[in-house]
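Q: Could you fold this chain for me?
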Amino acid sequence: MIRIFDIFFSIIGLIFLSPFLILIWFLGLLENGSPIFIQKRVGQNFKVFELYKFRTMPKNTKSVGTHLIKNIKFTSFGFFLRRTKIDEVPQLINVLLGDMSLVGPRPCLLNQKKLISERKKRAIFNVKPGITGLSQISGINMKTPTLLAETDVKMIKQMSLYYYFYYILRTILQIKVKKK
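A: Sure. Below is the predicted structure, expressed as structure tokens.
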């Protein structure tokens, strides 16, 4: 049932937002010549897939978790995209393709060995990763891999249609432009 909602909402989102997404793509093209950022991530059953995002940092930025980058440099437009979470919208394509769900554990990078280990111990890779979930609305990120994996397990155990919509709504309500 959740897959049906994933497909429906990703199609509606992509159609409804397409003029806006084209504008963001064009502005990103003007700013850095490469508006889309593609990064390999670990998905369900350890399947590696390409995650799509709008580029928020310069093209030569190392492909690691943001928390591991010292002196993070966002492009001027990228700062806005990151703060408003608009950089995540292209992941609707990943949802439509079936690599992700709207709700689930955030997909980790291949080089996040500690997080992969913690998630493997807890069978978190048995489910599709998502754009949002309990960790995101709780402010837990990949800096704390054990806590993140424990929170992912809690979300997976309680997952239902109610929580699917709850996490989506809470995420939408949390999105706001943060001051620098």
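A (continued): The mean pLDDT is 90.
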